[in-house]
């Protein structure tokens, strides 16, 4: 068989794999309806771990303090900060009765490990249901706690939410950052709806204290500096105990990185946890990335050679149309509709970035939590 025949056959296989993901997996989120929430108001502990976040806390903490919810506390963890973080959170504590401060002193065994600080904050919390966000995040609604906690039940002990990044006009980097965030959200929402939850994001994640202690907390990956959100979810989430929330009142929004270098370093840290996922998740995610990469590589090669171009064009357009439909409905759910106009360009840039990160991480280890 000639080389072009092999490439052509490989392209057909790749397109079939891609169509499989979009029609059988991603369509679950694209065409889903939000599950009905409970009317019960569980007492909730909102947990925020802050390391050198004094300025961000002044900006974003008021949006959490002002939440419309009958009974909640805010556990503010100062993770050995060197700025004015501790002074800021103590000031908020003096102004609000429902704020609890946990001041974590650095010890050699856990230096720079956010999981140690989070564990102390969780132990100090008063309530059985925990809602996590970051110091540079703000809820996009005063009903954020209400929306997230309403999906706890006797069966559901983990709630996956969406953490968006703020839009910046006329910034390609901002679109790339948000596209990666949306793509990741579509992935973990779709997998969860298919009964295979594999991750969540610490910007907007909730689980029960019982679930945390039943799993012995972060002990299985305590030596890894990252993964307090996705690795924990990957360890404990099942098709029975996990709920997804994508109503707009449940969104949080964070400050996006202002430079490509800063975002690239952040993504390097995040990617290191994926190799510790369950094997079935690694296989499915690896196949998804590989098929994305080879779809563009093989299609470009076949277009340049002109080999069976009519068939190649038909397969190429079919995959793009299916992608546009599923991504369009999904991005509308997540209030990110503007990204659809740049879909192919953003996807190509993201693939290149992810592949580059993979190669660089093989050579050197990324920096850890601040």
From TrEMBL:
GO molecular function: glycosyltransferase activity
Highest taxon in the source lineage: Bacteria
Transmembrane portions of the chain: 6-26, 283-305, 311-329, 341-363
Domain Glycosyltransferase 2-like intervals: 45-170
One Pfam family of this chain: Glycos_transf_2
Key words of the record: Glycosyltransferase, Membrane, Transferase, Transmembrane, Transmembrane helix
Gene3D superfamilies referenced in this protein's UniProt entry, alphabetically: Spore Coat Polysaccharide Biosynthesis Protein SpsA, Chain A (3.90.550.10)
Similarity-based family: Belongs to the glycosyltransferase 2 family.
Designated name of the protein: Glycosyl transferase family 2
Organism: Algibacter mikhailovii
